Amino acid sequence: MTDNTSILEIVKGMLQSIFQLNMRSFESKSDIVAFCDNNRLAKEQSWLQPEALELILNKSHQDNINYYEDSLHLRIILFYFNKVPVIIGPYLADEISAKQCIQIINHYQLSMSPQELNIYYGSFPILPDLQIGRIINYILKEFQLTHLTEHYTFFKTSDEISDEVAHLDETDISNANLELHYDMEKKYMDAIKEGDFHTAISYRDTLSNHSNRLWQKNNAKGSALSGYAINRAMTRIAAYEAGVPAPVIHQISYQESIALANANTISQMEKINHKMIQEFCDYITMQKKDQYSALVQSIIFTIKQNYSSSLTVQQLADNHSISESYMITQFKKETGYTPLEYLRDIRLEKAASLLISSHEKIQEVSFKVGIYDSNYFVKLFKAKYDLTPGEYRKKYQI
Fold first, then answer.
1. Most confident region among 102-116, 136-150, 350-364, 369-383 by mean pLDDT
2. Whether the predicted model's global pTM rises above the 0.85 cut
3. What whole-number distance in Å separates Cα of residue 82 and Cα of residue 328?
4. CATH superfamily of 308-396
5. Where are the domains of the chain?
6. CA distance linking residue 395 with residue 398, whole number of Å
7. 167 CB contacts (<8 Å, ≥6 apart)?
8. CB under 8 Å, gap of 24 or more: what pairs does 109-117 form?
9. Residue 126 DSSP code
10. Strand partners, 154
11. How far apart are CA 395 and CA 75, in angstroms?
12. Rounded distance, CA 235 to CA 252, Å?
């Protein structure tokens, strides 16, 4: 064995034994056929036709690490090692529920039972984006490929690409177009890492238009959700590289995915996606300014996201898997406040904003910021602002 072959085999064994994740190099047509036969379930997975996968392997950009997801939520990662294509996966980013199995079968009119689809999904490991990110960082270091940049693609269904596979090299997916797309992806992720919301949105909008032209031909909700999933993956990775704690990344991105699933229009989905990008950029900006530890940053974020609920110090500690006393000590050491004092200040600041920007009753404002005793609210507010809520509103209302 050569040194390179040894490294490949060692990493393959490690991924399989620890994560049940396959890694395979493709050196012949038989490798492609075997991969397709082992992983294809439905005709809708057109990319798992040998001729389509061969085209993908030949067309993918060798200076990038390529992330792909298909219409059945199956994911692979493709890169090149000594000019030989290597695929990691397939894998799933999230567990597919029984309800989702039924929805997928109905949406794509698959000729199988939910149980059969569930068994199919059960054959693949479930690896969230952050875990995959760590795995890929390790692999790229081992193979000395740390210069690679990320590229994301959603595989369309068979109906969407049936006329395209045979004519792919005649489309506008030229090297020049791909280079431009990759460059925009990198600039988008760099803007996220800087916490620059307006620049990130500018590149996101350009990427969206460019992606629609290159990869997608309709604005159906399914296609839109796939586009937002790709954007979410890029944003999560950029946020992780910027030092955002994993619990914060999960909370922001999970909220977006749930909200998108419940949205009814493209306009609503756009607002939800913008909100996610704004929250990541705001957090990264705060992180650079305050220089708190990951734990304290995560606690602050949780407080700001949940101040309107009946949040307790014990819940905060439980959410971060630490003791209440340790959390209070660390939080006060870095911020000068206890978590409860910080929560109270956030609530009062939000209340002050509502008082001058709305005509809601004092009791309604109190309830909206998570203080359910309006008399106690008035007492706290006056202690902080030297004015009652009514006096504050009269003096400062817009």
1. 369-383
2. no
3. 52
4. Homeodomain-like (1.10.10.60)
5. 1-162, 175-291, 308-396
6. 9
7. none
8. 110/42, 110/44, 112/41, 112/42, 117/41
9. B
10. 69
11. 57
12. 10
